[in-house]
């Protein structure tokens, strides 16, 4: 059985609240789970200690049993010091989009033409 430690959404529309659960990966996101391991309330301030609550002992048990945390839960566990920090790389994040690159090229071309015109005088 492939186990995941993941978020199960609760709360009403536009008021999200998540449970951190250990579940079979084949079950639906908000469906059947094996054990509740904590909570996450994204509406609270980032420095509020009630925002993320984790039962670290049980999470360590499930990790030892082979459960894989999802990306978001892995970040919570890194912040709590349960798992080692993983190096992430998104090389495309810092590059401008196609339209911005075209604007930059047009601006550089215009500046080059103005510099050439100034040199000709």
Automatic annotation (TrEMBL):
GO MF assignments: structural constituent of ribosome
Biased composition (Basic and acidic residues): 100-110
Entry keywords, A to Z: Ribonucleoprotein, Ribosomal protein
Compositionally biased spans, kind Low complexity: 111-121
GO CC field: cytoplasm; small ribosomal subunit
Family: Belongs to the bacterial ribosomal protein bS16 family.
Protein name stated in the entry: Small ribosomal subunit protein bS16
